[in-house]
Amino acid sequence: MPRALLLVLLGLLALLQYQLWLGDGGISERRSLESQVASDSKENQSLRQRNEALADRVIELQEGDEMLEAVAREDLGLVREGEEFILFVDDKSGEKSP
């Protein structure tokens, strides 16, 4: 009888060890989740920096007319009244015009 009890207890111990190391919520899954959290934290940090830069640009656009004018000129190609718009085009095809 004691031998059967010992075998049952050893079986239970083996089952518990299996659950601890390889089962759901075990150590291997925890390590996997920790590495995923670390990579997600790095990505979140870079996204936070990008959001801060965008927020700073929004504040600059809301507060200053000069920044708004610069963005309008660069991104939209806008010109003031009385100004002339001149576009320089590089001829990269290598052909000479007559």
UniProtKB/TrEMBL annotation:
Residues 23-98 are periplasmic. Residues 30-64 form a coiled coil. Residues 1-4 are cytoplasmic. The keyword Coiled coil applies. Keywords: Cell cycle, Cell division, Cell inner membrane, Cell membrane, Coiled coil, Membrane, Transmembrane, Transmembrane helix. Pfam families: DivIC. It is found in: Cell inner membrane. Essential cell division protein. May link together the upstream cell division proteins, which are predominantly cytoplasmic, with the downstream cell division proteins, which are predominantly periplasmic. This is Cell division protein FtsB. It comes from Candidatus Paraluminiphilus aquimaris. The gene is ftsB.
